[in-house]
Amino acid sequence: MKNEKILLVDDEQGILEIIEILLQKEGYHRIKKAMTGQEALRSVQTESHDLIVLDVMLPDMDGFQLCGQIRQYTQVPILFVTARSGDLDKLTGLGIGGDDYITKPFNPLEVVARIQAQLRRQNIYKELVSPEPSISDYGTIQIYKDEGRIVVRGEDIHPTAKEFELLVFLCSRPHRIFTASQLYEHVWQADYLGDDKTVVMHISNLRRKIETDPKQPKMIVNIRGIGYKFVPPNGGESE
Asked: Which site in 33, 147, 154, 173 is 20 to 30 Å from 4, CA atoms measured?
């Protein structure tokens, strides 16, 4: 089941049902339907959606007008569906905030394909613009990635560049075990030549700086014969 929520707005019940059935076959089950502009606007005001399919010819208001009002609440993709085929109408729809335009009569499969294309683009955009948190807070230790700082129990420590990169790498993948060779290749960006000393030395130095008792480490843990993992001191991470 796909998690995206879709709002279908059309005054023809048959069209709503056909598109809904086809979307359900593709795994979309979070579907809301509206047959008037006011009903659609209430839905937008009270709920979040990932995409809106909007008929231009609604009984109580023009779909273009409704689009302008919707854009006051959300910037999710809007796919216009209309019997108007003129270029002016298409340009109007796209100009006021629509993302795609399809004319009636249409193949319902084409509508579903365009919905999926818009959702794919939306998901890719979200991945590209979602910033990686610059601060990782584990209670007794905070890592300021943009500043290259590590604060342990309220005090700044002074890691080397590679120590910092090594800790950031491990912290971004808590509880996951990495061999010395994997750590070397990821952090030093070079082929591993069979010598663990570089990684072991940096792990040892980090432990002296961040662990309460470096001889019995609780955060950078060695799994004998396998590798190392980072165990958050508070059991998890809050950004």
From this structure: 173
